[in-house]
């Protein structure tokens, strides 16, 4: 499915992608696609927040990574992230601080604002953030947590941008969200000259393509029936 967007890890390991052009910041006709730095910022801030919640034993209910505690797969992912955290507590405690970020973050808590602090979530900052393998491992499961319930409407709510301008989503929408997942687990790291963390795990959630194929068949049938009805009325 992803190949239709020329998005193949094997053939384009370091390609600068325009993947966000498939999304928009609103349903308006002239809506612009979200910026890549916005995505990086949202994900890294969310990952830090998740680590702080793990520290306090809080189950997230209103964030990018919120999940239903009744979702056993999501809960298992959360427990996996907790295990990674427990194995690297001192490291993650520092990493998760709001002031351990670009100048835009944690201003009130900074003792000194150094000129060496990155001004934004640029390549240098992101490369440094994801340098340790334990962070890439934790982030990999963080993305799995975001996608624990593969629902286009929920993903729109979480990321705050749109895959289409319709209320009823299609297989193409699912392909876009799959493409985005591949970007933030693979290409975001190869762009930073880092090795992506990847693990074959039963905790990976996949969309129900069958459901969308059935919905599209119903839509086509309705469209055909409407056309036949309109043609009959014209002939009458």
What do you see in this structure?
The structure is a single chain. The protein is globular, with a radius of gyration of 21 Å. The chain folds into two domains: 204 residues, no CATH class; 29 residues. Helix 2 runs antiparallel to helix 5. It has 236 residues and is mainly alpha-helical.
Helix and strand element order: HHHHHHHH
How many helices in DSSP terms? 8
Query: In percent, how helical is the residue content?
Result: 40-55%
Instruction: Report Rg.
Output: 21 Å
Shape: globular
**Unreliable spans:** 1-16, 226-233
Q: How far apart lie the N and C ends?
A: 44 Å
Structural domain tally: 2
Largest sheet: none
Briefly say what this structure is.
Helix content is 51%, strand content 0%. It has 2 domains: 2-205, no CATH class; 208-236.
Secondary-structure map:
Layout: H1 36-56, H2 72-87, H3 89-95, H4 123-129, H5 133-146, H6 152-159, H7 171-190, H8 209-235
Helix pairs in contact: 2-5
Features:
236 residues; mainly alpha; 2 domains; 0% strand; disordered N terminus
């Amino acid at each position: 499915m992803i190949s239709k967007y020329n998005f193949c890890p094997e053939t384009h390991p370091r390609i600068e992608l325009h993947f966000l052009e498939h999304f928009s910041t609103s349903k308006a006709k002239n809506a612009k696609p979200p910026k890549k730095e916005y995505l990086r910022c949202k994900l890294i801030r969310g990952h830090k927040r998740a680590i702080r919640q793990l520290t306090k034993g809080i189950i997230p209910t209103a964030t990018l990574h919120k999940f239903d505690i009744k979702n056993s797969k999501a809960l298992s992912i959360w427990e996996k992230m907790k295990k990674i955290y427990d194995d690297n507590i001192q490291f993650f405690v520092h990493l998760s601080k709001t002031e351990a970020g670009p100048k835009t973050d944690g201003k009130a808590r900074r003792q000194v604002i150094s000129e060496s602090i990155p001004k934004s979530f640029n390549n240098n900052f992101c490369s440094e953030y994801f340098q340790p393998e334990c962070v890439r491992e934790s982030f990999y499961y963080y993305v799995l947590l975001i996608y624990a319930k593969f629902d286009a409407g929920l993903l729109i709510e979480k990321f705050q941008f749109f895959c289409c301008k319709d209320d009823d989503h299609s297989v193409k929408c699912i392909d876009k969200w799959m493409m985005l997942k591949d970007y933030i687990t693979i290409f975001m790291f190869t762009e930073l000259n880092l090795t992506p963390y990847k693990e074959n795990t039963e905790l990976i959630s996949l969309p129900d393509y069958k459901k969308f194929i059935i919905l599209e068949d119903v839509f086509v049938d309705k469209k055909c029936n409407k056309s036949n009805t309109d043609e009959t009325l014209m002939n009458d």
